[in-house]
């Protein structure tokens, strides 16, 4: 039975018994978790066999298990599809269900006999009678197990399946180890596979509700024959599904089967087969996802074609697409996104695994063949993708395209693998190229079937995975850093998968600002000033802003609300890291990567803003969430940090730039650099502003000192250069040097002043804020900006607003502010020239007054209110929301206060 629901002009036919989406999501998560448990158990058993069996016995076991893997995959893909389709086509009721199950059991029996004979024939060249008997029994029981699982899957009873799959792995492990205690032979290990299949098959049929009533009752309720044109007979459907799945399951295992047959089970294939266990993890996970996707597609909404709108959704898999309409692509995209996220993560982890960790997973003799991991992992990823795309054709067809593709790939692969069997590296790359080409063609065909280009998403995912693999490969020599990067990568992928985009059309705009630096933090620079000045103006206009910042050692690091902006340290409790500022900053990045999904889930923002910060610049926030993201770039110097710490920060910065499509630069020079590095992004230049109080600060009468105001730091702010320059100028001037600010290099600066002999000429004022900051600038004869690099030069702009000239190095961004009319520039990092210019300006008050008088006019256009309005307009465009004529958003007041920090 089906129910029809019409929305607008689109008609959708929806199965009446299909579960709600949230229930399906929970079932998919449970089944995927069960598959991971079962896969972990099987994987651990395989690794145990590597160590317990002699090389010759392990080759026999591995080849036989690969044959049975093909049989099990064939059965697991064929019978659930057949049972689901057969029971869906029958009228509801226990009797008709029993007839369908009986028919499927007969079909499974025929396939089991054929597969058992084929499995024995594949192992005949190297297996003894005991091993062949175990292989035959396991092949038959695997088909029975698949039929029982199909009965549960047809009812979408994923809860029982989630219990049975790990149970099968547990029974298999116990039975295999028990048989090995009797005699360490490959036959005993394979007999454990048969025992696990037998146990779970019986449990599946017992858990199904009366699947096999008496024959007399079944005959009394025999349904009428199917009308002509109502679809193919069950036997024909079983044959088509079986052939397609046989070819699909044979292709991933064809390299091992052909190579073992050609080389008669040579022990030289042991490293190849041992590493194949690691490379095929994505295939195991894809099998679980396909099991969840199949019943969803079987009962998913179908958009009928215009020429045949009344075609029933239960058409046969071999029916033409025009006769059945288009499959709803939403479940396909959800499953493929999850597949690529998990599979690519596993693949890059396996490919870049350091040698010490690889030696723990496989014997040292196998680890010497680690070069095979790359092609084997590519082949495993392609086989997993092929499994996913084949589900689209299994659910609603047509199977002819898939069968033709696989029928061409399998013979070609057999010939190719036979020619390269003597060279494991050539064999591995042959498998990678053939399987990847087949998966790519299948991906294109599946995209056409659901009227959605899947290959674009796959290509983007692979490019991203390649970039991540380069970063992990660079860290292979540092095992601890590699492990940390893998943990962060896994958490990032999990966060991106769990995030769900919600578009709110009412209520105030909510912004989650990843600001990195709290303005209250000791040593906070101009970036935090910009963040607060803009965010507080947005809050005054009704925007709900939560600024997430790195914690810092000492008091005051608590959640607070300041000028309407909520500040939240992340992580909230840094624990033993709280004693180090640098470790707190690194903890912030880790917390963003692993906990962003929690923040988004709790605060439900419309927009995420990421401030680029040292040393990585960006941590690829757009790839962690589906919410719109705007990057605010005040800093692009990861290359310098890479040289300083000898770590690949510049690679992370390059990756972060690729992730962003909307960027805000604080200067035109920085905007030009961003457009050069990220051509496809929308880059907007919005300079910093100046508080109006700076223009009205009263100038002092004396102006007998020079001033440095800013973060006490040497690598970027160049405080050490200023001290050396002042030491050379001190004998030629009577002006003292005032240093206002705090920062990480305060102690080193004081020590350097003592060494240079100018400690008595320097006054350390500490941190100065608010109007006192502008009064201090206005009372100085000269403001020194000795920065090695700047992204804007906020101190220089504020000094010019207070009618005080600026002495700076001739570096990008600063030279746009400090022109010859308002200040003096000297060659970058030229300490002698800086000292000479400082002495000349300090000795010429009239020139300083003349340069300072031109300062306010040169920076009068820098207005925080105008910058905030422009940035808010950019935010609104990013989220697709517009204000009403009175300046408010639709429905303002609804939901006010959500996402508050407690």
Give a summary of the structure in a few sentences.
With 902 residues, the chain is of the alpha/beta class. It folds into four domains: 25-214, no CATH class; 234-274 and 292-300 and 326-498, no CATH class; 509-685, 3-Layer(aba) Sandwich (Rossmann fold), CATH 3.40.50; 692-859, Glycogen Phosphorylase B (Rossmann fold). GO terms for molecular function: glycosyltransferase activity.
Task: Explain what the structure shows.
- Residues 892-902 have a biased composition (Gly residues).
- Pfam families: Glyco_transf_4, Glycos_transf_1.
- One of its GO terms (molecular function) is glycosyltransferase activity.
- Residues 525-692 form the Glycosyltransferase subfamily 4-like N-terminal domain.
- It contains 34 helices and 18 strands.
- With 902 residues, the protein is of the alpha/beta class.
- Helix 1 (21-52) packs antiparallel against helix 10.
Name its key features.
34 helices; alpha/beta; 902 residues; Rossmann fold; 8-stranded mixed beta sheet; 6-stranded parallel beta sheet; 9% strand
């Amino acid at each position: 039975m089906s129910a029809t629901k019409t929305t607008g002009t689109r008609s959708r036919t929806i199965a009446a018994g299909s579960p709600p989406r949230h229930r399906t999501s929970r079932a998919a998560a449970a089944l995927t978790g069960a598959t991971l448990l079962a896969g972990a158990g099987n994987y651990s058993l395989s690794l145990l066999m590597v160590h317990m069996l002699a090389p010759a016995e392990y080759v026999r076991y591995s080849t036989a298990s690969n044959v049975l893997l093909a049989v099990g995959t064939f059965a697991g893909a064929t019978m659930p599809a057949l049972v689901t389709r057969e029971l869906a086509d029958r009228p509801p009721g226990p009797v008709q269900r029993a007839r369908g199950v009986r028919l499927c059991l007969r079909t499974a029996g025929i396939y089991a006999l054929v597969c058992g004979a084929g499995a024995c024939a594949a192992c005949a060249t190297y297996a003894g009678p005991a091993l062949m008997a175990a292989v035959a029994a396991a092949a038959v029981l695997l088909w029975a197990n698949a039929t029982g699982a199909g009965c549960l899957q047809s009812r979408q009873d994923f809860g029982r399946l989630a219990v049975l799959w790990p149970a099968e792995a547990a029974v298999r492990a116990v039975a295999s180890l028990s048989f090995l205690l009797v005699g360490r032979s490959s036959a005993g290990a394979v007999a454990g596979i048969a025992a696990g299949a037998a146990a779970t098959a019986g449990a599946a049929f017992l858990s199904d509700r009366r699947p096999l009533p008496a024959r007399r009752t079944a005959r009394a309720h025999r349904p009428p024959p199917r009308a002509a044109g109502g679809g193919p007979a069950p036997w024909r459907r079983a044959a088509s599904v079986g052939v397609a799945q046989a070819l699909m399951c044979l292709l991933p295992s064809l390299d091992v089967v052909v190579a073992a047959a050609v080389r008669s089970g040579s022990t030289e294939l042991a490293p190849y087969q041992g590493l194949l266990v690691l490379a095929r993890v994505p295939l195991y996970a894809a099998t679980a996802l396909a099991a969840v996707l199949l019943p969803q597609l079987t009962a998913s909404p179908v958009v009928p074609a215009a020429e045949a709108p009344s075609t029933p959704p239960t058409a046969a898999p071999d029916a033409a697409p025009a006769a059945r309409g288009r499959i709803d692509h939403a479940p396909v995209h959800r499953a493929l996104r999850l597949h690529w996220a998990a599979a690519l993560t596993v693949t890059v982890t396996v490919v870049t695994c350091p040698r010490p960790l690889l030696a723990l997973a496989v014997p040292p003799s196998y680890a010497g063949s680690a070069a095979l991991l790359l092609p084997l992992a590519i082949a495993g990823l392609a086989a997993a993708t092929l499994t996913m795309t084949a589900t689209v054709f299994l659910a609603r067809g047509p199977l002819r395209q898939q069968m033709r593709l696989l029928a061409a790939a399998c013979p070609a692969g057999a010939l190719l693998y036979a020619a390269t069997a003597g060279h494991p590296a050539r064999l591995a790359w042959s498998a990678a190229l053939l399987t990847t080409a087949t998966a790519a063609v299948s991906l294109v065909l599946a995209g056409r079937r659901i009227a959605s280009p899947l290959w674009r998403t796959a290509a983007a995912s692979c490019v991203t995975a390649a970039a991540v693999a380069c970063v992990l490969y660079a860290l292979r020599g540092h095992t601890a850093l590699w492990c940390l990067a893998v943990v962060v990568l896994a958490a990032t992928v999990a966060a991106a998968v769990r995030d769900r985009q919600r578009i709110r059309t009412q209520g105030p705009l909510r912004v989650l600002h990843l600001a990195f630096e709290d303005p209250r933090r000791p040593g906070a620079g101009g970036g935090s000033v910009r963040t607060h000045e803009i965010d507080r103006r947005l809050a005054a206009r009704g925007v709900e802003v939560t600024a997430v910042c790195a914690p810092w050692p000492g008091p005051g690091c608590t959640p607070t609300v300041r000028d309407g902006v909520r500040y939240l340290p992340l992580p909230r409790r840094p624990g033993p890291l709280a004693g180090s500022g640098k470790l707190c900053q690194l903890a912030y990045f880790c917390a963003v990567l692993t906990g962003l999904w929690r923040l988004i889930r709790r605060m439900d923002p419309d927009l995420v803003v990421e401030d680029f910060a040292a040393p990585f610049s960006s941590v690829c926030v757009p790839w962690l969430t589906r919410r719109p993201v705007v990057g605010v770039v005040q800093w692009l110097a990861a290359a310098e940090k890479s040289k300083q710490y000898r770590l690949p920060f510049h690679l992370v910065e390059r990756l972060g730039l690729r992730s962003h499509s909307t960027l805000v630069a604080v200067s035109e020079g920085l905007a030009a650099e961003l457009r050069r590095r990220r051509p496809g992004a929308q880059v907007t230049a919005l300079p910093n502003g100046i508080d109006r109080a700076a223009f009205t600060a009263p100038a002092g009468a004396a102006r007998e000192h020079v001033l440095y105001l800013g973060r006490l730091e040497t690598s970027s702010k160049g405080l050490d250069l200023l001290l050396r320059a002042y030491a050379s100028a001190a004998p030629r001037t009577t002006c003292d040097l005032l240093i206002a600010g705090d920062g990480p290099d305060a102690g080193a600066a004081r020590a350097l002043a003592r060494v240079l002999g100018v400690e008595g000429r320097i006054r350390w004022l500490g941190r100065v804020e608010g109007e006192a900051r502008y009064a201090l600038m206005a009372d100085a004869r000269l403001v020194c900006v000795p920065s090695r690099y700047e992204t804007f030069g906020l101190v220089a702009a504020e000094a010019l607003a207070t009618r005080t000239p600026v002495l700076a190095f001739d570096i990008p961004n600063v030279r746009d502010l400090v022109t010859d009319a308002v200040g003096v520039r000297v060659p970058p990092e030229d300490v002698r020239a800086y000292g000479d210019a400082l002495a000349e300006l300090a000795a010429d008050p009239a020139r300083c007054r003349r340069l300072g008088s031109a300062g306010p006019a040169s920076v009068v256009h820098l207005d925080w209110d105008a910058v905030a309005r422009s940035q808010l307009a950019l935010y609104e465009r990013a989220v697709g929301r517009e204000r009403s004529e009175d300046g408010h958003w639709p429905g303002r007041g609804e939901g006010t206060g959500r996402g508050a920090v407690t």
